[in-house]
């Protein structure tokens, strides 16, 4: 009986909180210092929670041209649990030209993926 109640409660929570039902673990999603990390993507928006800015980690969004790059890594001392402050990046030329102009180690961005 107790097991049935627990299952019923769990099912109700999934129905009432649609974001939980759609959360999924994907492949590599971002990198920090050349190390790739996976993440659990949820549709949850934490920006309007009133949390202080210091409780968010910065992640740079390259608009799909390459993996996102974060400033803190899971397990690191500055990591806040994946609550991201997203900085969308833009450039004045195409991605390849911009990469060539700013690729300090001339590796074609491979250490950033």
How would you describe what is shown here?
The protein is of the alpha/beta class and 113 residues long. It is built from three helices and five strands, in the order H-H-E-E-E-E-E-H. It has helices spanning 2-16, 18-22, 95-102; strands spanning 24-32, 35-41, 57-61, 68-70, 84-88. A hairpin with a 2-residue loop joins strand 1 and strand 2. It is globular and about 40 Å long. The termini are far apart.
Strand order of the largest sheet: 2-1-4-3-5
Mean pLDDT: 73
State the end-to-end distance. 50 Å
Largest sheet: 5 strands, mixed
- Shape estimate: globular
Structure class = alpha/beta
Number of domains: 1
- Helical coverage, percent range: 10-25%
What's the count of strands? 5
- The Rg value, from CA coordinates, equals 19 Å
Low-confidence stretches: 1-21
Q: SSE order, as H and E? A: HHEEEEEH
Range of strand content:
25-35%
Q: How large is the count of helical segments? A: 3
Q: Which SSEs are present, and which pair or pack?
A:
Layout: H1 2-16, H2 18-22, E1 24-32, E2 35-41, E3 57-61, E4 68-70, E5 84-88, H3 95-102
Parallel strand pairs: 1-4, 3-5
Antiparallel strand pairs: 1-2, 3-4
Task: Summarize this structure briefly.
25% of the residues lie in helices and 26% in strands.
What descriptors fit this protein?
113 residues, alpha/beta, 5-stranded mixed β-sheet, 3 helices, globular, disordered N terminus
């Amino acid at each position: 009986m107790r097991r049935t109640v627990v299952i019923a409660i769990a099912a109700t929570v999934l129905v009432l909180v649609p974001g939980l039902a759609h959360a999924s673990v994907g492949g590599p999603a971002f990198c920090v210092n050349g190390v790739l990390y996976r993440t659990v993507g949820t549709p949850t928006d934490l920006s309007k929670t009133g949390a202080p800015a210091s409780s968010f980690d910065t992640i740079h969004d390259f608009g799909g041209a390459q993996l996102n790059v974060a400033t803190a890594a899971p397990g690191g001392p500055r990591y806040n649990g994946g609550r991201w402050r997203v900085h969308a990046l833009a450039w004045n030329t195409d991605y390849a030209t911009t990469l060539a102009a700013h690729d300090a180690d001339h590796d074609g961005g491979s250490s950033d993926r």
